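Review the following:
>
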Amino acid sequence: MILGRIPVLRRLVVTLLAGTLLLAAGCTSDPGSAASPSQPPADPSSHFPTTVHTTHGPVTVDRQPQRVVVLEDQLLETSIAVGVHPVGAPAPTTPLGPWTQGRIERAVRTLPMTDGVPVEKVLTLHPDLIVARDYLVDADTYAQLKKIAPTLVLGVDGDGSDTPAWETDARTIGQATGHVTAARRVIGSVRAKIGQARKDHPAIVGKSFQLGNLQSASQFVCTNSDRTSSAQFLRALGLKLAKLGGAGADNRVVLSKERFADLDDVDLLIMGSSDAKLARQLAADPLFRRVGPVRQETLDQVDLTWVTAFNIPTALSIPALLHNLTPYLQRL
């Protein structure tokens, strides 16, 4: 099978998101020992109780949370962006990007996520709000978490509307934590940066892109839906997703080496890899070197940290992603 399906989003977690849980040293041995950061007071635009929409339906938060636990790196980024100071977050494995430098306290990164959500460790943090992602939380885990505290499970690719996922995340977390004004300000700033990038590079409008992650030297996981977080972000620049023939309706599909020539007409190719040796091996492959974006120098070859950021862009990472893309947009 040349184009293979990825049947569940958990497979995507293994190939695209594994190991993107934050770099740090000196974490506390007891998650419950971390001091509780003081939360800024609710802004004048926030009111409690408040009800927010999640993948599990409406969730009501009765009062401003003081002990917020987040269960995904990108949700941690978003929380920080809107002014929340979580008391718990995923334990470190590999680093997030430089856009997080100086923004995240090491003491909160204590939750081991490699074997799923550690519900008992979450309980020791005494949260009054939990923020999680749909690919991490099944029905049983959700039932356990909501007994601990109101639990917001947010879709990795948004809420099904035309609003980009990064924006939905910021607005929802801002509303649930009493930071409505901060969320609006951050969303407005990011929108303006995206708009400026589009204005600065008018020639990119209508150009095609493809984005994904190398599973091996002969397999590339490609984006196959306009509804994915990555496609939402890049489409906002005026780019359009290059669909692959025979890919079906799955959000992401595997393109084998025999079909790398299908990428020849793609204008911008963003390709990530968790293995630097694998990336070098591919770069030296004569078949790959004949692909259009490689020849035109519009291949943005990035590591796992950056490709994860492209796949799940946040209000915190998008300015850095735009900066990273600038030389490639100039060549389109």
Remarks:
- The chain is about 35% helix and 20% strand.
- The first strand starts at residue 3 and ends at 5.
- Residues 93 and 148 are 26 Å apart (CA to CA).
- Confidence is low (pLDDT under 50) at residues 1-36.
